[in-house]
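Replying to the earlier thread about multi-chain prediction with a worked example.

Input:
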Amino acid sequence: MASGSLDFYYEFASPYSYLAACRIASLAELADVRVNWKPFLLGPIFAAQGYTSSPFNVYPLKGAHMWRDLDRLASAQRLPPITRPATFPANGLLAARVAIHLNDACRPAFTRALFSAEFAQGRDISDRETVRQVLAGLGHFWDEVIADAESEVNKARLRAQTEEAQARGVFGAPTFFTADGELFWGNDRLEMALEHARRLARAA
Amino acid sequence: MASGSLDFYYEFASPYSYLAACRIASLAELADVRVNWKPFLLGPIFAAQGYTSSPFNVYPLKGAHMWRDLDRLASAQRLPPITRPATFPANGLLAARVAIHLNDACRPAFTRALFSAEFAQGRDISDRETVRQVLAGLGHFWDEVIADAESEVNKARLRAQTEEAQARGVFGAPTFFTADGELFWGNDRLEMALEHARRLARAA
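Result:
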């Protein structure tokens, strides 16, 4: 029986992407689904929809509920309590460049560690020192990784992945796509997306 | 052991309120939680947030995803396929007035039947004939019920319930409150809200 596959588009400023990143690997393994970790930037996509900031800032009641909801979900997932970073949404440009530069084997661990620095420790991920320390903690030569991540070639890769997300109809994060192009929006739809991926693989 | 309780605020134009209305009674019974069915109007609450229409119309990509998401969720809940009413969001004023006028024993069945006319049959719930037929199907004297629902006293009840929702921080539908005032937004949070209500009742 063939394994399923799932594209996982995430943005480093997005707390629901954090929750999804922390649970997708184990859930996908149980479903026999391979995950393609795809960092992208939500900024240009939000801007195209007419947002001037995160919807959670534009609609304050929704934002207040989001932080409470995150507390409850983090607790249910047995994650450390959420610590709000000073700036929300954070600028995740450097983090996304590093994540897309790392190879498929290293990207998930970096992604989880960076998200954890942001939402469990409340650190500023736009600060190069934060990114350096996360890379160091994972055993990477941080200065080389960051230099490569900021090469023109790699910058173009992130732009292309963001354009690809937009072209596929992504409007928020996290977003999942199964092999048949079906779009699932939000951490709450991860189980349904995996189930659909599994069914497709079985039928193949 | 005391039973738990849960306030269930719903709006007749809201398809996620429909999904919640169709499953809340059985889930609440399993959790030994009593549900207070509270119809209200989202229009004034959206207007206060600066929306000019449903967010699902304001953000078309989000709207397109919503209809696809509803198809998948309706199928998972073993409900008939979603049929989009011609106008979205529908004007649910008359339906909400009737629902709040009916007593606690009759409100859930009317709510489910009205929602079903709207989202399973695609009927126009702002049409008095639709409301009449739903009432007739449930064995009510429809003309009397509608006349009472449109009395000044009952209109004021709906206004008061909408103001109450707004004062409690409701910003979308469905919204659930447990006895300790904790707010849970969205059909996706129904299980979590019921679990919290059950835990509160146990601890009491």
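Chain A touches chain B at residues 49, 59, 61-62, 64-65, 68-69, 72, 76, 169, 171-172, 182-185, 188-189, 192 (CB under 8 Å).

Feel free to reuse this layout for your own posts.
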